[in-house]
Design a protein that fits this description.
It is built from 2 helices and 10 strands, in the order E-E-E-E-H-E-E-E-E-H-E-E. By secondary structure, the chain is of the alpha+beta class. Strands 1, 2, 3, 4, 5, 6, 7, 8, 9 and 10 form a 10-stranded mixed β-sheet that branches.
């Protein structure tokens, strides 16, 4: 099972998103964990590699199981760990081989083209307190089949 991290940076009421060239979908910068790396280390490293920025006040906001199905058969499954940073330092790249970076209003997370599960977890990361857990099932073309979401708050 593959492990993926992403990190949503928020600054001045905006979120930093990467528009991927393949589908034109928007994502939070991130990628595959390296062997021996913690989820925190992976999120920060991937974010820095894709943005040229240093994230500040980083914390985990969600843990998700992503399941890709072909009919009833599971063809792929991975874990996604979503982090949020409440500030960044540095000068961002404008475009990389991963896509085009840009700052967008938090509200635009509701309408920008993206995977349905990403919309769910990025809106939670940007707007809600606590942690979110979930499972998203997709077709091979990334059409959402189902989602199961749980939220928790510390007392």
């Amino acid at each position: 099972m593959q492990r993926i991290t992403n990190l949503l940076a928020i600054k001045d009421g905006k979120v930093l998103l990467l528009q991927k060239p393949r589908r034109g979908w928007f994502v939070a910068p991130g990628g595959k964990m390296e062997q021996g790396e913690s989820i925190y280390e992976s999120a920060v490293r991937e974010f820095q590699e894709e943005t040229n920025l240093t994230p500040n006040y980083v914390h985990l906001k969600g843990t998700y199981t992503m399941v890709i199905k072909d009919g009833e058969n599971v063809v792929d499954e991975w874990m996604l760990y979503t982090f949020v940073a409440k500030d960044v330092e540095g000068s961002p790249f404008e475009e990389t081989r991963e896509g085009i970076l840009g700052w967008h209003s938090i509200d635009s997370l509701k309408t920008l083209p993206m995977a349905a599960g990403d919309r769910t977890n990025l809106l939670f990361a940007a707007l809600k307190d606590g942690m979110q857990y979930g499972t998203f099932e997709y077709t091979k073309d990334f059409e959402l089949i189902s989602e199961k979401i749980q939220n928790s708050m510390e007392q």
